[in-house]
């Protein structure tokens, strides 16, 4: 009887098969091809003589400019994540704990509403606010507070502002689910035992919401370091990030191999940061590894 | 329960109805299924509109074919990724710098056969010079665009772009990705050094050009100039003249040192299975009537010497041998061989 059970095809596996195939075809295969292209002298499909090479990686290591670009990309990703967390956490906490259903619905709509507009449109909206002739500078100048426009665009700060606006909803929605599942009676018990509300939050709610912080931060970080439109428009091409450099290599230098190598480096750095972040938060929350 | 009414049953009725419906929808496609398809590239905007509305359909009708236009830039990486024996395009239309890169990679034929394209005999020498791969069907002049409402005074030289009074309102391009930016870099070598190839002089000049607002394509620069974000910028004449009649406070300046040539170039891919049709298309685009219609729509200077434009356009565009002689062509082969090195340097110069 047991043998009959083991030979029967698993229904769940059949359900998973299409998505597993799609994942393999559209995720693992492209990354595998990108890794392969990064160590080849050309495209073997259209070029007759192609050899293995490490020159694309050597070029990156040999020129500090590329290391600076990598660091700029990571820096923008980290700052965006931290600011999105600082803005998103209180909002998510409020949404998770609000008693009124109507209030919750209104807050949810407020968070979701910006996501109904495209990233390009939202970035252009920021440009109309932050440019030299934009709303902010014109208002300050008309009030006589400044004589020359402030440099709000074409800076890393401008890019971070745009990215935070776009990615805060991802942080809020991720955190709301996690905070909502934390039993409020734990905080009440801490307060009954003499803890102040702040201490109850810091020692009970915050550690229990770490999985949400981790998930939201990873999501925002991954989106921020791979962002293209916002850094290009708000950075005015004067702030070079890896996605911009990759596009430049493909569209204008036609160097697919070097672009692939840059892509692999971006992927490896992201994975390393994810692992490091995971371990650090695991240790802080008293767990060896967070799932 | 429905009985069959004579020979017409419900099933037959539904089948006939569905067939009729599908037939009606598919008829135009079926009728044209045998038509050969010529795959080309082309710009969007006004160029794309007139190609879709007039120029393209007229070609399709005359040559009994279908024109498939890809206007989603960049074209060369897509051609690069497609098979050499079955390329994604039959005719590639893009700027000269990319055409040279494509020719170097063997993706396009370096020259057009004059026997297959008779109108080639009527083009200005620049359109088929040794600086051109394929044939330039139009050109625009790269010079300076300026606001006329800011009291800047008259501008006559490229060097005035370096004047400190334009700090904060100076406009240029992302050199690694923009033809105008790359041509301007070569001009810097001419202005401040020994010639186009004097890169050290060009880099030094670019350093002194900061602060400068840079954009990736000319459409963005047009918007910046119109909004007043920039007051003096590098731009092609078409980017200013196309707003003719809209009472915009902008003007194009042809600097005394000469204007740079921004060629609209057509090439044919070696692996194209539609060579005859591709040559016919190139010839068609060089016809005087086609050139006139396009030139007066997008304000590009026609390459065909026989084109007679209306007075308004003739006064501003490069339509005589004397005017055309002011054009400075860039040695894109030389530039492309050093592109990586130049990109690395200018990316450093313009980073914030």
TrEMBL record, chain A:
In the bilayer, the protein is annotated as: Multi-pass membrane protein
A Gene Ontology biological process noted in the UniProt record is:
transmembrane transport
Which is an annotated Pfam family here? Answer: BPD_transp_1
- Gene3D superfamilies, A to Z: MetI-like (1.10.3720.10)
Its transmembrane ranges are: 12-40, 69-92, 104-125, 159-179, 200-222, 228-247, 254-277
The UniProt record lists the ABC transmembrane type-1 domain at: 70-277
Main localization category = membrane
Compartments it resides in? Cell membrane
What cellular component terms from Gene Ontology apply here?
plasma membrane
UniProt keyword annotations, A-Z: Cell membrane, Membrane, Transmembrane, Transmembrane helix, Transport
Q: Which InterPro entries does this one have? A: MetI-like, MetI-like_sf
Q: Which PANTHER family match?
A: ABC TRANSPORTER PERMEASE PROTEIN, INNER MEMBRANE ABC TRANSPORTER PERMEASE PROTEIN YDCU-RELATED-RELATED
Query: Which family is annotated?
Result: Belongs to the binding-protein-dependent transport system permease family. CysTW subfamily.
State the protein's name: Putative spermidine/putrescine transport system permease protein
Query: Species name for this entry?
Result: Bradyrhizobium sacchari
Identify the taxonomic lineage of the organism of origin.
Answer: Bacteria, Pseudomonadati, Pseudomonadota, Alphaproteobacteria, Hyphomicrobiales
Automatic annotation (TrEMBL), chain B:
| Keyword DNA-binding tagged | no
Can the keyword Signal be found in this entry's annotation? yes
What GO molecular function annotation could you give as one example from this UniProt entry? thiamine pyrophosphate binding
Q: Which GO terms describe its biological process?
A: thiamine transport
Gene Ontology, cellular component aspect: outer membrane-bounded periplasmic space
Q: Output the Pfam families linked to this UniProt entry.
A: SBP_bac_8 (PF13416)
Name the keywords, alphabetized.
Periplasm, Signal
Q: What is this protein called?
A: Putative spermidine/putrescine transport system substrate-binding protein
Q: Which organism is it from?
A: Bradyrhizobium sacchari
Q: What is the lineage of its organism?
A: Bacteria, Pseudomonadati, Pseudomonadota, Alphaproteobacteria, Hyphomicrobiales
